[in-house]
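Marked as duplicate of an earlier ticket. Keeping the data here for the record.
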Amino acid sequence: MTTQQTSIGRAADRKTRVLVSGASFAGLSTAYWMNRLGYAVTVVEIGKTLKMGGTPVNIEGDTVDIVRRMGLLERIQSSSLPARPMEFVDAHGACLAMMSAQAGNMETSAPEYEIERDELLNMQFHDVKNDVEFIFGDSIARLEESADEVTVTFKSGKQRAFSLVFGCDGNHSAVRRMCFGEESAYSKFLQLYFSITIVDKLLIDENTSQIYNVPGKTVMLSAYNGKTDIAFCFFSEEEIPYDYRDQEKQRHMIREHFEGEGWRTRELLEEVSRYRDFYFDKLCQIKMPSWTKGRVALVGDAAYCASPAAGMGGSLAIVGAAALADAFQKHPDNFEAAFQQYNDSLRPFIEKVQADAIEFGLETFAPRSEEAIRARNARFGNS
């Protein structure tokens, strides 16, 4: 699986080597563009393989043009999921309001697609695996920057030097912690915790989604391709200390907050208890004055996580990597200028997405009062 990149272009002729930490959408997108620009790219991924599983990815807005530039659009279109309406239901399952879904269509002014995470991840990996070096089952343990390079010590004990390092390792980024400081300095807690479990059967009609709300609590089902995503989300004014490695404790927190609630909550808690597929985290946004420092740049959730409330985690990673590549294309011989353009050009877009996630996303999917629930239902109307 490890293949050395062929030297192409001006950068590779100078043997300019760059390291990408993380092999999800931010990492694979960054690897794709830096390889296209002629850099010798290495990707290090802590997992032994690509991390599979997770909820589908939305491709919309600026992301559609970027995946077209990457040669992915036709494949995304052929693998895209049917549009799913979102029903807001009461404790008896009756529909109180509905948010209609817009299916992607090349003839419309704003095409939108949704694709399973694994499908898109495999597409991106396929496009770079023969031109980029991949190191699986390892991670960065230490970074030491000099005037001309960054010496990277891996957890395995190996050391290598790179001209640039890109932290694409998620909202709990180790690269960010090493180079910019502790997560607490940049993470804005949105006073919500959530879990996602994907079960391999349909719990509602396929290609539909349903949400049940009581103040400060959300239960959501989303069905597609013969399976169902089960999501729980609850409000907490203060952060709750917990061990991110202790999944049983996390499951207990979900049971503790949702036992006794209405609709299908009891049944869904039982489903979650039977499946190993379980993800839990707090909702937060990453806000940083700069996404670059020295020879290190952050891309995707590591730099500007907007939270799942934005519905754009994968898209932001793809957009961010393209913005970084455009900056390097404009400043091929000056990484400082490229980093500055990356910071300046992308920031207005990121700030809007993060604001929309709070103003629309949280108000729509996680209202905190009966009044907010009624206002949301009135906004979308009966259907």
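See parent ticket for discussion. The chain has twelve helices and 18 strands.
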